[in-house]
Amino acid sequence: MLARRAAPLLRPLHPHCRCFSSSGTTTSPHPALSVLPAYLSPTEQSLLLRHSLALLDQPARTSAAGRKRRREWLKQHQRHNPPWDPAAPPFFMADDAYAWEEGHFDGVIRRYREMLVRDGMWRDVAPPAGGGERSALDAVLDKVYALVPAPPTTTTTTTTATPPPRAPAASPPPHLIMHLLHLASTGSIAPHVDNLDAFGRTIVGVSLGGARVMRFERVSAGAGKGEREREGGEGPDRFDVLLEPGSAYIQAEPLRTHYTHAVLERAEWDGRQDRLPTDQRHS
Ligand SMILES: O=C(O)CCC(=O)C(=O)O
Ligand SMILES: [Fe+2]
């Protein structure tokens, strides 16, 4: 279970460190934010990204114009040497092969595609059981679901109680609203606080594709120290974290409602500006 697996990772190394170690230890600047670098291995990332893109690309979820754009791009790129291969990294087609939503209804997200994953949907894109791929995908999904804290239980467990039947990995657990978000290389998310009623008290993200900077800013940044401690807890008023592919983050209270978060289109990260985003990102 995650709680046991992740417990040693949830301790901040240094309260203001902006650098990630690759040792699997979180380096979050805020006690209510956990960042788990390399939570998924490269193989797990590839599997999840490929199947997530396949879900987003299902004909029922795309427009006629989008499918035409995709067909034309594919036709052109099959003539390349080597031709574009959907089963090989980077798994994304070029930006101009997708029909992006230009702006979210409230203007927060720009140049993106998104969907909610409902019961059984991963089965629509996983190959039939028998090959190892389906069980490998299930294992990755279980690892992602394990990041989400279980809802509090009201019943007492006794040693003789039979555990509830395990839900198939193809269906997100009932306490998880699973949202796929594919950002164009020029896509971004403006600062916002997610609606508490719609999304619950904990927000978990798994990053795939291009690295991006996530910026957090205390909503009541102007408040005095005493008030700040009540509204958002200890931690700097504004900080950035680098979301590298394969990393996961967990935003818990009080950060989740007292800080905005944003995914920047382009940002400097410890002098690595030139190595940062020109890539699409999937979360
Ligand atoms: O892509 C992410 O990790 C964050 C997405 C987000 O903030 C949102 O959809 O509200
Ligand atoms: Fe958000």
Question: Which helices and strands appear, and what pairs or packs with what?
Answer:
Elements: H1 2-6, E1 33-36, H2 42-56, H3 64-78, E2 101-103, E3 109-117, H4 121-125, H5 132-145, E4 178-192, H6 196-199, E5 203-206, E6 208-209, E7 212-218, H7 225-230, E8 238-243, E9 248-251, H8 255-258, E10 259-263, E11 281-282
Helix pairs in contact: 2-5
The structure holds 2-oxoglutaric acid (AKG) and fe (ii) ion (FE2).
Residues 192, 194, 261 line the site of fe (ii) ion (FE2).
In brief:
The chain is α+β, with helices and mostly antiparallel strands and 283 residues long. 24% of the residues lie in helices and 22% in strands. It has helices spanning 2-6, 42-56, 64-78, 121-125, 132-145, 196-199, 225-230, 255-258, and strands at residues 33-36, 101-103, 109-117, 178-192, 203-206, 208-209, 212-218, 238-243, 248-251, 259-263, 281-282.
Give a written overview of the molecule:
This protein has 283 residues and is of the alpha+beta class. It has a single domain, classed as Sandwich (Jelly Rolls). It is 24% helix and 22% strand. It has eight helices and eleven strands. Strands 2, 3, 4, 6, 7, 8, 10 and 11 form an eight-stranded antiparallel sheet that branches. Helix 2 (42-56) crosses helix 5. The longest helix has 15 residues, at 42-56. The two termini are 22 Å apart. Residues 1-24 have low confidence and may be disordered. The chain binds 2-oxoglutaric acid and fe (ii) ion (FE2). 2-oxoglutaric acid binds next to strand 4 and strand 10. GO terms for molecular function: 2-oxoglutarate-dependent dioxygenase activity. Residues 66-80 have a biased composition (Basic residues). Residues 173-283 form the Fe2OG dioxygenase domain. Pfam families: 2OG-FeII_Oxy_2 (PF13532). This is Fe2OG dioxygenase domain-containing protein.
